[in-house]
């Protein structure tokens, strides 16, 4: 695999305040990375730093092996071979679709420009719209134009800031799959910012979860879901509910049963929480006694009913007020029932990262 992007300990400050610190990551040709994290964690700043709109306070960025960018060696955006697609697409309203696409390739001869525009119009299914203006297009079509314009100079890396947030929810999935296929066909390396974890699972090969200017975890979406490395990652990805426990020897006691810590690595339960993924909780069918939870809220989903459960009759230090359970069974609000934890690999974290 050939490396396209390599970040080593990238740091950015605004007004003397650290906004990004110690960001290191690598992307190979054709890989698509989804940047996820809560509002204000620095996702857009990272894109802007890569694009060259923001100067670094520390670290190094290497593009395609030979271009090196550091605080002492800033390279202007137009020389980085990076294409950027903004959330609002930022198309020029007074230019046609074809003229928008031509914007970054005016150095090419007229015939080369024409050729490239016609290829891109075809690739992005815009052939009919070359002479139209942006306001005459749908949101999805405008986005395709933005992508065509960014691809026209044949960048080494494509940056997309919340590319799907303005797209109708019904079209979003279809468009994501289509654009992913296109990027794969072109072997285009891309980084996109999103708030939506489902977009990462549809669109990305890798996910980077950020928090307070730091990169907490980088990996394949499935790996990060199976093995989140801290509370913030699991919580942001909403991988499950958090319940307290008490540890005695290698036995964990929770409000819904006891578990054995086979890894022997669990720390005392104080300030620590057990991650309960919905698939690891089950209703004890036919049990009329020993109820340990009450149904607090019910919502309907494609996977059946989603129940929010709260513990009942638990001592204060083990009580919880939210445990998610998905089931096809119809339960009533306020109903008491008994649930248990299925044997599984336990994931325990503390909220405190320091
Ligand atoms: N030009 C600036 N000057 C000073 N502070 C800034 C500037 N731009 C962003 N910030 C601050 O940097 C932090 C990171 O902002 P950024 O926009 O990168 O976050 P984000 O993760 O993209 O957020 P969102 O998901 O809400 O778009 C925030 O605390 C923000 O207030």
Low-confidence parts? none
Number of strands: 22
Give a list of the ligands.
adenosine-5'-triphosphate
Q: Level of helix content?
A: 10-25%
Computed over alpha carbons, the radius of gyration is 25 Å
Percent of residues in beta strands? 25-35%
Averaged pLDDT, please?
Answer: 90
The number of helical segments is 8
In the sheet with the most strands, the strands line up as 6-7-8-3-9-10
Assembly type of the chains comes to single chain
Q: How far apart are the first and last residues' alpha carbons, in Å?
A: 36 Å
The best one-word shape is: elongated
Largest sheet: 6 strands, mixed
InterPro entries: AAA+_ATPase (IPR003593), ABC_SmlMolc_Importer (IPR050093), ABC_transporter-like_ATP-bd (IPR003439), ABC_transporter-like_CS (IPR017871), ABC_transpr_FbpC (IPR015853), P-loop_NTPase (IPR027417)
Protein name: ABC transporter ATP-binding protein
Domain ABC transporter: 5-237
Keywords: ATP-binding, Cell membrane, Ion transport, Iron, Iron transport, Membrane, Nucleotide-binding, Transport
Structural notes for this entry:
The structure is a single chain. This protein has 354 residues and is α+β, with helices and mostly antiparallel strands. The chain contains eight helices and 22 strands. The protein has helices at 43-51, 97-102, 110-123, 139-151, 169-185, 197-203, 221-226, 231-236, and strands at residues 3-14, 17-28, 32-36, 58-63, 67-69, 82-85, 157-161, 189-194, 206-211, 214-219, 241-244, 246-248, 251-254, 257-260, 272-276, 281-283, 293-301, 304-311, 323-327, 336-337, 339-341, 348-350. The strands form six sheets. It has a six-stranded mixed β-sheet with strand order 6-7-8-3-9-10, with helices on both faces. It has a four-stranded antiparallel β-sheet with strand order 2-1-4-5, covered by helices on one side. A four-stranded antiparallel β-sheet has the order 19-18-17-20, with no helix packed on it. Helix 5 (169-185) links the parallel strand 7 and strand 8. Helix 3 (110-123) packs across helix 4. It is elongated, with a radius of gyration of 25 Å. The two termini are 36 Å apart. The protein binds adenosine-5'-triphosphate. Residues 14-15, 19, 37, 39-45, 195 line the site of adenosine-5'-triphosphate (ATP).
